[in-house]
Write a structure and sequence with these properties.
NUDIX_hydrolase_dom; 3-stranded antiparallel sheet; Nucleoside Triphosphate Pyrophosphohydrolase
């Protein structure tokens, strides 16, 4: 079933997002309105550290204005540019938010974030061979908290509702499937 776009107009724009309203015609001939949020590509990074003591991931906690609360999640974000090398983006976001640099970056997949309303791609990377440097947060990330947690504790945070970010949960599930099949 295809939906035909009859007309499209931008109703809002800022440096991070634009919103458009499309008049559409469905396969059954009925017309309607569809709101679409346009955003440039983003990435999410799974910073995995394996030591003699076990496996660990690095999380960030930040205030998310849209829900009015602080939440734990995997490092993620975008640069507000349409053309970007996914690995450069992932390395940059990882360094910016955590200070970590990765020896190896593996692209696990490209997902869509909330494609019922938004057309943003989300590159999912596994970062390994980590070394610590200085974080370089942007203005909205000045209050980030970085935390190293054991994988079992991280998974418990997902199961008990401490981590509610669907992108972090999806990225971790993707990683677990990828690892299982290697």
């Amino acid at each position: 079933m295809r939906i035909k776009t009859i007309s499209s107009r931008e109703v809002y724009r800022n440096p991070w997002t634009s919103v458009r309203e499309d008049v559409i015609e469905r396969a059954n001939g009925k017309r309607g309105i569809y709101g679409v949020v346009d955003k440039d590509p983003a990435c999410i990074v799974i910073p995995l550290e394996v030591t003699a003591e076990g496996e660990f991931v690095y999380l960030i906690e930040q205030f998310r204005y849209t829900v009015g609360a602080r939440h734990w999640e995997l490092p993620q974000g975008g640069w507000e540019v349409a053309e970007v090398e996914p690995e450069d983006l992932a390395r940059g976001e990882l360094r910016e938010e955590t200070g970590l640099m990765a020896e190896r970056m593996t692209l696990l997949s490209t997902l869509q974030i909330a494609y019922g309303v938004m057309n943003q791609k989300h590159y999912v990377f596994l970062a390994e061979g980590l070394t610590m440097g200085e974080p370089e947060p942007d203005a909205e990330e000045s209050d980030l908290v970085v935390k190293r947690v054991g994988v079992r504790d991280f998974e418990e945070m997902i199961l008990d509702g401490t981590i509610v970010d669907n992108c972090s949960v999806a990225a971790w599930g993707l990683y677990r499937l990828w690892r299982e099949r290697r």
